[in-house]
Design a protein that fits this description.
This protein is an alpha+beta fold and about 160 residues long. The protein is built from 5 helices and 6 strands, in the order βββββααβααα. Helix 1 crosses helix 4. One of its GO terms (molecular function) is ATP binding.
Length: about 160
């Protein structure tokens, strides 16, 4: 690590700590030549491979922007969006791969977004999955409805049964 003050090619690590979100390491360094101290932040790089084959660094902000568009006009707070984007990043990093397909990032978004707001989920899914007709929307809505329907069994009343 080059010293930012004198450009010496070496430095000594004085202290290391993980950051608040646990995704990076903050290191205090000291330059043996000029004696000044500086801080570096290290993160594991994660690259997204787009359909075109182009690559770009993963961006939690880009996830946030896309989900924010889907949630426009919906009763979803900025805090909820921030938590969702963090969950997506954690899920993507949990794969253990340094490169991930853009398609897999989209899949990682769909689950948490569905839990957050079903209308926003439909909006996002319609773009992500390239819905081309009403039938595509109807099929997705049918899946959502099927999840909300009771399984046919009545839950036992509280306090009933032998005791």
């Amino acid at each position: 690590m080059h010293c930012p003050f004198c450009r010496h090619t070496d430095s000594r690590v004085v202290d290391s700590r993980t950051s608040d979100d646990g995704c990076s390491i903050r290191r205090r360094r000291s330059c043996p030549t000029c004696g000044r101290r500086f801080t570096t932040v290290e993160t594991a790089s994660l690259t997204v491979v787009k359909r075109s084959g182009a690559t770009e660094p993963f961006s939690r902000e880009k996830v946030l922007v896309g989900v924010r568009k889907a949630c426009q006009g919906r009763p979803v707070s900025e805090d909820a969006l921030a938590v969702l984007s963090q969950r997506v990043e954690e899920a993507v990093r949990a794969t253990g791969s340094a490169e991930i397909d853009a398609h897999d990032v989209g899949l990682a978004i769909l689950g948490p977004l569905r839990e957050l707001d079903e209308v926003a989920y439909l909006r996002f899914a319609s773009v992500y999955r390239s819905f081309e007709s009403l039938a595509d929307f109807e099929a997705e809505i049918a899946l959502l409805r099927a999840e909300h329907e009771p399984t046919g069994r009545e839950p036992e009343a509280a306090g009933s049964g032998s005791g």
